[in-house]
Design a protein that fits this description.
The protein is mainly alpha-helical. It is 79% helix and 0% strand. The chain has helices at residues 10-19, 23-49, 54-64, 66-78, 84-101, 108-136, 142-154, 156-177, 180-189, 193-216, 219-230.
Length: 238
């Protein structure tokens, strides 16, 4: 007799996530960050190429990618500390603050420095989220919860990337080229298509920073931090 096919227990996975106080909030927070991150997916190359040649931009990213390697080595040697959830939020405070300022003026070096910070701190955020999930989610459900979290989180960036391009082209760029934005802040921020893209980055950074500060002061952060502290260190099967 053929074995009954295994069912995808989505409802059970959702119950496991809901059983850990604050875990849904963590997934939604990561999803929101990826939602804003889609802006970079759509606009960063266009902005970089407004400052330097294609060859220089490609070389820049080749050099900046070493930030991932350096970050990974440091995390492997030092870890994330006793409170990875706090590390996650602190990383977001820094990265969104950088996002506010790294295009505040049309400077290649300012852009490169901001991208380096983003790439350097990205592995910290990912490692902190995964460390938290691994400790608070029962081992037998970790695979399903991780898959659920990733499917929700990763769906956000492409959606934003799809929407932000036309929004920037037809609304923000005219606003910063011949519109009210150019008249209001163009004297020090600059005007033109590239400065319209820069304004989108700055607004995204402000929104991200505000949301992170709210998350830092939320009950969900306290609940999930308490759940992490109370969870056993050894979750391996006996």
């Amino acid at each position: 007799m053929p074995a009954e096919p295994r069912k995808v227990d989505i409802a059970g996975t959702i119950r496991v996530v809901a059983a850990v106080p604050g875990l849904f909030a963590l997934i939604l927070f990561a999803t929101f960050n990826n939602f804003l991150g889609g802006i970079f997916m759509a606009l960063l190359d266009a902005y970089g190429l407004s400052l330097v040649s294609v060859e220089m931009w490609g070389l820049t990213f080749g050099v900046l990618s070493t930030a991932f390697i350096i970050s990974g080595i440091i995390i492997a040697r030092t870890g994330l500390g006793p409170k990875p959830l706090r590390t996650l939020l602190m990383v977001n405070v820094i990265t969104w603050t950088v996002c506010i300022f790294f295009t505040i003026q049309p400077s290649f070096w300012l852009l490169a420095a901001g991208c380096f910070v983003w790439m350097f701190l990205g592995p910290y955020a990912e490692a902190a989220e995964q460390t938290t999930l691994q400790k608070v989610v029962p081992q037998e459900r970790q695979g399903r919860v991780f898959g659920f979290a990733q499917s929700v989180e990763q769906a956000a960036s492409p959606l934003t990337a799809f929407l932000i391009g036309p929004l920037t082209e037809f609304m923000v760029i005219p606003f910063m080229t011949t519109g009210a934005g150019a008249a209001l802040i163009g004297g020090w921020f600059g005007t033109g298509p590239a400065r319209g893209i820069a304004l989108v980055f700055t607004i995204a950074g402000l929104v991200g920073l505000v949301v992170t500060v709210i998350a830092f002061n939320s009950k969900y952060y306290r609940q999930l931090s308490a759940a992490y502290a109370q969870a056993p260190d050894d979750v391996s099967p006996s």
